[in-house]
Fold:
Amino acid sequence: MTSSPAADAAASLLADLIAHGVRDLVLSPGSRSQALALAAVDLAGRGLLRVHVRVDERVAGFTALGLSRETGVPTAVVCTSGTAVANLLPAVMESFHSGVPLLLLTADRPPELRGVGANQATIQPGLFGPFVRAAVDAPVPGDGDWAGLGAQAVDIAMGANAGVGLPGVAGPVHLNLPSREPLSGVAPMLDVTPGPASRPEPPAARELARGPRTVVIAGADAGPAAEQIAHDGGWPLIAEVVSGARFGRQLVHGYRALLDDPELGGRIERAVVLGHPTLSRQVARLLARTDVEVVAVRHGGEDLDLNGRTVSAASVVVSPGPADREWLGAWLTASAGEVVDLSVSAPDAEGLSSKDVAARRDAVRAELDAVRRPLDRALLVDAVWRATWPHDRLMFGSSRLVRVADSVLGGKKVPVHANRGLAGIDGTIATATGIAAASQAEGAHGVTRVLLGDLALLHDVGALLLPPDETQPRMQVIVGNDGGGTIFDGLEVAASAPPADLDRAFYTPHDVRLEQLALAYGWEYHRVTTRSALDQVLTTPVAGRQLIEVPLER
Ligand SMILES: Cc1ncc(C[n+]2csc(CCOP(=O)(O)OP(=O)(O)O)c2C)c(N)n1
Ligand SMILES: [Mg+2]
Structure:
């Protein structure tokens, strides 16, 4: 084998990416992309890159999204030409809307083979439209080179001003990479020095005066910064369960009811928003109120502005001065009454050791009832929340369970993920496999748990396919199986439309045997129906991949 311009360009581009912070690359098999794939595997062999192979490009895209979510630096995705490219679109849209950096390296035919009916050739440049911060149709190696492209792509993916998306906010970047035969050749042995990813200089923070009665709203991916602002301001903190900010002394329980309360929600003068709130009507209504001053810290590719006068800020700091204790106190007093008690009652020790046979029998019976108590959604989310610790990761799907979790769970400082950019039910498991791979790299401990509904699982079944020659992630995919999409039972139309039509078009019943599905893909399977069985499976050390089915009532 001799060298080829395609192989040289591919190796230099990947070396450039590694020098600028890229550590993970997800690839799907294909011919046109062979030079990139071979260079990637070579670099992986030299310990310079982690390569993750996924057959389905949609899965590959979401896996990369999960890796980037966890690492905060762009993950590269490599695929071949044709429909393969289009399969990346769902992950690209989510990454744009949730502000996650991503690099799409799509192989293409050279320009002379485009638009002339050549095999597997389509219109790839510009395919991702408004959802990429930048798109480059690179020259064919030999006609030009790809020098500098990698560094530039990383900068823009990390938020450098690109004209598309908000400056300072990360997102996807598309490099369309054409090549001519020979598509591969001897890979050049390049000196590669891993370097850090650039982070755009943060613009000056907006200072928040103390005057107005303020609440801090933490939506998806707000992170601990939201808790810090609430702490500094002495303001009540409304933190969605997917925010990563649901902890601390300012945290408000049962925020839906409190926002509906005219004495609390009704008296809000200012809302400071971090992340992307999506889980309650109450927060959406608050942010749409024109009498409320809304300050939104930039987050995804688009500004948040539901009331037509929201001010956007790159970051915020609180002016020094005394906090409004009365305001915070009113919220925290009301919040204390909203705490949901899901604790399993302590065993009746006295009854169990009583000398009276009847008393002992009653105590044993009560104990057995508690153990056998069937699971409902609240108990399920509570058990998963309790089992999760800071070295673990928890990913929520866009099923009913995330809303239940948001309504009932208390504060806990654990890393949480969810694709709330567009709240799709696609790609949940794939994203979680990426999160698991990144968070468990280099011997790190912890389990990645995914909590989702049955349709969300079935939508992303392809993500259960993991290559046997890659490090197996420690994962628990916990499926609340209610036989279809029960989220739609809460739609207004459910009250009027014929039940059979509703079932067919919305609930979409299925009778998939999840056990066989799990086993076919090499996942350990558990079916649990009681709280004690669930606690047991969640607290037993996890060595590999488990699918845990929890049957739920519709
Ligand atoms: C890609 C995509 N398609 C469709 C939807 C609309 N959708 C929202 S929830 C849902 C059903 C979810 O069912 P399941 O995961 O079983 O959760 P459940 O509602 O039963 O808790 C659907 C189809 C979506 N969010 N994303
Ligand atoms: Mg369901």
Observations:
- DSSP finds 19 helices and 19 strands in the chain.
- Residues 342-371 form one domain.
